Amino acid sequence: MTLAIDPEILAAAQPIQLLALDVDGILSDGQLYFDNQGEEIKAFNSLDGHGIKMLQASGVKVAIITGRTSNIVAKRASQLDIDLVLQGREDKLLALFELTQHMQIGWAQMAYMGDDWPDLAAIIKVGLGITVPNAASGLATHCQYLTQRSGGQGAVREVCDLIMQAQGSWQLALQPYLNTDLPTIS
Known about the structure:
Number of domains: 1
CATH superfamily: HAD superfamily/HAD-like
Strand order of the largest sheet: 5-4-1-6-7-8
Largest sheet: 6 strands, parallel
Number of helices: 8
């Protein structure tokens, strides 16, 4: 099974070598939770996490760029083997520029996924600009792709699958899960 995606979107996703993600509203639902001690709490979607792992296994790098700074984000990035983590970065476009230099890739080889106006310059500049249905009102008009799922609810997984489909690696990524052979029972 493959996703039914517009051919223009698939063409834009085909050269992607880096998927850069905002956190609040993309990897999480955008809500800010605090415990009684004032510590921040975030919920991350396990579908997104597995999609990120599959995408990285296909050869596409993943980066996190967020305006906030959080130990929780660093811990989640570590769990997902994401080594490109830029926290406390309000200027997302400048952060992306630094990644183009670090990775020696062009803008067309980058996808960026954000949900609010501070993400706009990055969304417009990259080869594939993406947002979610629960983004700031009007932001979607500036994006090439609007996910079906909301931020924190599997939207990142949807994009990971899209990129792998465009690059022809999605079916290969599914192969380990299609093995129905059982060990012999004596």
